[in-house]
Design a protein that fits this description.
Among the domains are: 94 residues, Tetratricopeptide repeat domain (Serine Threonine Protein Phosphatase 5, Tetratricopeptide repeat); 109 residues, Alpha Horseshoe (Serine Threonine Protein Phosphatase 5, Tetratricopeptide repeat). The N terminus is likely disordered. The radius of gyration is 34 Å and the shape is extended. It is 77% helix and 0% strand. By secondary structure, it is mostly helical. It contains 23 helices and no strands.
Length: 435
């Protein structure tokens, strides 16, 4: 009996083994056994059919990064296969490889230049890759045939990213007109008008109120903008009602809690202001306005000790920020200098020097900017002013330093300035002689 059972087990194992050996990639894939399909395909010749099955198996496992090289191998022998290009482009997009996706959509579009599908996909690929100017150019081609709302919004984003807010708002408005439920376009429009301050608050309030009443009363971003606009317009009760409503549906963001706190503060309801500004404080401690109003509200609820702590923290934050302002000035000045806007560069260098008058090297930067702008008289004056800050023991004329003193970078600037003053005086003399 035991012998019969053993024979039966052996036969079953052999049967399973034979069955497994006869399974192909198609069989594994039909049974959703994609890893086994890939393992089987690794032992097979790299035919086009096998590579396609391998790519599909990787994609079914959401391994788009592994699938992409397989498509690339297929395209080596079939570079103009449109179906392959589409699959590779979609796979690259899923893998987060926006450059490869763009490359494949450009190729597909070149093979069928009048195809609206390829034109649209190419425009989207430019957008996802951050090529803003190319996005704008590509969408204009599509708009000759169809004004797709998604592309209208993307075009608005592209203009926003190249700092063209008027054109950005134009395309956001077009997108919203095409699709009134597009809360993303509406939020961009409202941000544009909100930035206009008093001139735009009412527009934001009206547009957001209409959306919330007619489309979706629970859209958090639009509700938040409505609350902000009502607060900024002095309609504090409306702001509180709206902001509380979006808190009830799960929005506990900094912006919502801050404006809810500020609306209560404006009404003189300081305990409620403390509640919401306290929540904002826990979310973001970089806004000095929040420190001021939270601390002041605490003081008016007679929580003096905590009020002082918060206000002191805010003052420390301001002091720290003030110490960084010269660095911001210098970075802005360098940006202008690098784009040959010397007047602006000089303005920001002077601003930095005014904040930190002990940073004498800034005088050299100002002189150099004048020099580059060919304003030689001001360059000479500023170089001379810089030379007056040289160490007393430093002999600029003989390029010597005092005993035991090392030549540092600033000393080199003194030497360069000394030589440059001489050169510029000679140049000005020659110019005056030629007149």
């Amino acid at each position: 009996m035991k012998t019969e059972f053993a024979i039966s087990v052996v036969l079953t194992m052999v049967s399973v083994s034979v069955s497994a050996q006869t399974l192909t990639a198609h069989d594994f894939m039909q049974q959703y056994r994609y890893r086994e399909a890939i393992e089987w395909l690794e032992t097979q010749p790299e035919t086009a059919e096998n590579l396609l099955l391998k790519a599909e198996s990787h994609e079914r496992l959401y391994n788009h990064t592994d699938a992409l090289p397989v498509y690339e191998r297929l395209l080596l022998n079939n570079p103009d296969d449109v179906a392959l290009l589409i699959s590779a482009a979609e796979c690259a997009s899923q893998a987060g490889d926006t450059e490869s996706a763009l490359k494949y959509w450009i190729k597909a579009d070149s093979l069928s230049p009048e195809n609206l599908f390829f034109q649209t996909k190419k425009a989207i690929a430019y957008y996802r890759n951050g090529n803003w100017q190319e996005t704008i150019e590509s969408t204009q081609t599509v708009f000759q045939s169809d004004s797709i709302p998604l592309l209208l919004r993307m075009t608005g984003d592209a203009f926003q990213n190249i700092h063209e807010p008027i054109w950005a708002n134009y395309f956001y408005t077009k997108a919203y007109e095409k699709n009134p439920s597009d809360h993303l376009s509406l939020s961009r429009i409202c941000e544009y008008f909100y930035a206009m301050e008093e001139d735009g608050y009412d527009t934001v309030a009206v547009m957001t109120e209409k959306y919330l009443n007619e489309i979706n009363p629970n859209q958090k971003t639009i509700g938040q903008l409505n609350g902000m606009a009502n607060y900024s317009s002095g309609r504090f009760d409306k702001a509180i009602d709206r902001l509380k409503a979006i808190v009830e549906i799960g929005d506990s963001s900094y912006t919502t809690t801050y404006f809810l706190g500020m609306s209560n503060y404006a009404k003189g309801w300081y305990y409620e202001a403390v509640k919401w500004l306290g929540k904002a404080y826990e979310l973001n401690r970089n806004d000095v306005n929040m420190f001021y109003y939270y601390g002041t509200a605490l003081g008016r609820t007679k929580n003096r000790e905590r009020a002082v702590e918060i206000l002191q923290e805010g003052m420390d934050k301001i002091d720290k920020m003030s110490g960084m302002l010269p660095d911001f000035d210098i970075s802005i000045a360098e940006a202008y200098q690098n784009t040959n806007d010397h007047a602006k560069a000089i303005q920001y260098y002077f601003s930095a020097y005014k904040r930190q008058p002990d940073r004498h090297n800034l005088l050299y930067s100002i002189a150099h900017a004048y020099d580059t702008a060919k304003d030689y008289k001001n360059a000479i004056t500023t170089y001379e002013r810089f030379l007056k800050t040289a160490p007393k023991d430093f002999d600029v004329a003989s390029f010597a330093v005092a005993k035991d003193e090392k030549m540092n970078a600033e000393n080199i600037y003194y030497i360069v300035s000394f030589k440059r003053i001489k050169e510029l005086r000679e140049q000005l003399f020659m110019q005056s002689g030629n007149k």
